[in-house]
Design a protein that fits this description.
There is one protein chain. The protein is α/β, with parallel strands linked by helices and about 475 residues long. The chain folds into 2 domains: about 1-260 and about 390-480, Alpha-Beta Complex (Amidase signature (AS) enzymes), CATH 3.90.1300; about 300-375, no CATH class. About 40% of the residues lie in helices and about 15% in strands. It has helices at about 5-15, 20-40, 45-60, 105-110, 155-160, 180-185, 220-230, 270-285, 305-320, 335-345, 350-365, 370-390, 415-420, 425-430, 460-475; strands at about 40-45, 75, 115-120, 165-170, 185-190, 210-215, 260, 290-295, 395-400, 435-440, 450-455. A hairpin with a 5-residue loop joins strand 10 and strand 11. Helix 5 packs parallel to helix 6 (about 180-185), helix 9 crosses helix 11 (about 350-365) and helix 9 crosses helix 12. It is globular. The chain starts with 6 loop residues before the first helix and ends in a 10-residue tail after the last helix. About 55% of the residues are buried. Bound molecules: glutamine (GLN). Glutamine (GLN) binds near residues 128, 173, 176 and 204.
């Protein structure tokens, strides 16, 4: 089946003329039609645009254009702006909003010839770990539809796992590409802060937000990252560093690679099968010639409280612009103040309101020093833990999440339990460094487990090389959900 190809395989077949972009797009659109009623990975399917783009890709190829993503069907998280295509960030407050411009990361994919299949479901403004906070209903996990796909980029993860896209973009502020990829048995990479432009990404927490990529192999991640990485004059936080050739970094050789295993990432209360699978994956890296050693990241326990002060603080400021006047539906009440109150009161969901209140409190006069400023200082300590670790090791291997995918509804009323599903991903976001996840096993219920590989800022090549070497030796990433 065409939908079973990996991105890299599809590239080769398109290049060889064995398949057309139109056939590939049609196969994916058909699969989307068949599975969407069960999964709800997409908020918008752009069928006509996709077919047009695919025809265009076939025409370009006939004219000897060989752009890397020519004809590759991809899904885009609905927090990334797409000109002319509704973009909601999973929020009712942006219902019906059609952006006048396209996010740089998306534009770069389109310029490289990619075919956008649609916009994927997300927790509202990317706040959540299950997509249950979407204003448009939850996405379901392709491995077990009674379970969450993770979040906030749950739609993108589910779409790639269920063969409803060859790859996808998501965003990661505290784990939102890594955690859902782990829950859905696919691969994802959160680049270093500054590696990919945030222009056109609807801001949640600006010092943490980063566009990430999903695929069914590390090799696919390398292709997608290569297409979107690099400086953008429209985002002053994007680094003026040229993007390396990530695919060229995949040598298959990790002999001598120093892999650190942080003791703080194996904690009481985690699912024993997750620990077993991750330790077995680390043994596999050793068998491939890596030098594994124990390390410590002593401030790990503060990542959760630090993140839940900094991210809501930044969110409370970023979300002030959604007032019913400039974008989305307006609940007009005569006086402007009442209009703001009615619009925001009705259209924001409970988690978004919780974060706005938390953040506004942490930033308020008298509490700023005690909460926000203190959190920033501890963030530096967390970053210094990594600096020290990376003086000794090249990458860090750890679980991506403490458990496999939980049941829909299981944590929906318990914010803290929900927040805890990101304990292993938050630190890399706070430190602005690279974090990737690859499938490394399954639990007794047949749910996927993820191995997280963390690397120093801007060392995506080494992280991808380790992930790819692991996948050359194992087959976990080739398993498909029983749909
Ligand atoms: N789950 C975390 C949160 O709710 C991280 C979300 C994200 O990375 N966007 O904030």
């Amino acid at each position: 089946m065409l939908t079973d190809l990996t991105l890299s395989e599809a590239q080769a077949q398109l290049h060889a003329g064995a398949i057309t972009a139109v056939a590939l797009a049609q196969a994916h659109l058909e699969r989307i039609r068949a599975l969407e009623p069960d999964l709800h990975a997409y908020l918008t399917v752009t069928e006509d645009l996709a077919l047009q783009a695919a025809e265009d890709a076939d025409r370009r190829r006939a004219n000897s254009d060989d752009s890397p993503l020519l004809g590759i069907p991809l899904a885009i998280k609905d927090v990334l702006m797409t000109r002319g295509v509704p973009t909601t960030a999973g929020s009712r407050i942006l219902e019906g909003f059609v952006p006048p411009y396209t996010a740089t990361a998306v534009q770069r994919l389109l310029d490289a010839g990619a075919v956008m299949l649609g916009k994927t479901n997300t927790d509202e403004f990317a706040m959540g770990s299950s997509t249950e906070n979407s204003g448009y209903g939850p996405t379901r996990n392709p491995w077990d539809v009674t379970r969450v796909p993770g979040g906030s980029s749950g739609g993108s993860a589910a779409a790639v796992a269920a063969r409803m896209a060859l790859g996808a973009l998501g965003t990661d502020t505290g784990g939102s590409v890594r955690q859902p990829a782990s829950f859905c048995g696919v691969c994802a990479l959160k680049p270093s802060y500054g590696r990919v432009s945030r222009y056109g990404l609807i801001a949640f927490a600006s010092s943490l937000d980063q566009v990430g990529v999903f695929g069914r192999s590390a090799a696919d991640l390398a292709v997608l990252l290569g297409a979107i990485a690099g400086h953008d004059p429209r985002d002053s936080t994007s680094m003026a560093l040229p993007a390396p050739d990530y695919t060229a970094a995949l040598t298959g050789d990790i002999r001598g690679l120093r892999v650190g295993v942080p003791r703080e990432y194996f904690v009481e209360g985690m699912q024993p099968e997750v620990e077993e699978a991750v330790r077995a994956a680390i043994d596999q890296l050793a068998a491939l010639g890596a030098e594994v050693r124990a390390i410590s990241l002593p401030h790990t326990e503060y990542a959760l409280p630090v993140y839940y002060l900094i991210a809501p603080s930044e969110a409370s400021a970023n979300l002030a612009r959604f007032d019913g006047v400039r974008y989305g539906p307006r609940d007009a009440q005569g006086a402007l103040w009442s209009t703001y109150k009615a619009t925001r009161g009705r259209s924001f969901g409970p988690e978004v309101k919780r974060r706005i209140m938390l953040g506004t409190y942490a930033l308020s006069a008298g509490y700023y020093d005690a909460y926000y400023l203190k959190a920033q200082k501890v963030r530096t300590l967390i970053k210094q833990d990594f600096d020290r670790a990376f003086a000794e090791v090249d990458v860090i291997a750890a679980p991506t999440t403490p458990t496999t995918a939980f049941r829909i509804g299981e944590k929906a009323d318990d914010p803290l339990a929900m927040y805890l599903s990101d304990v292993f991903t938050l630190s890399a976001s706070l430190a602005g460094i690279v974090g990737a996840t690859v499938p490394c096993g399954f639990d007794g219920g047949g749910l996927p487990i993820g191995l997280q590989i963390i690397g120093p800022a801007f060392d995506e090549p080494t992280v991808l090389r380790a992930a790819d070497a692991y996948q050359r030796a194992t087959a976990w990433h080739t398993r498909r959900p029983p749909l």
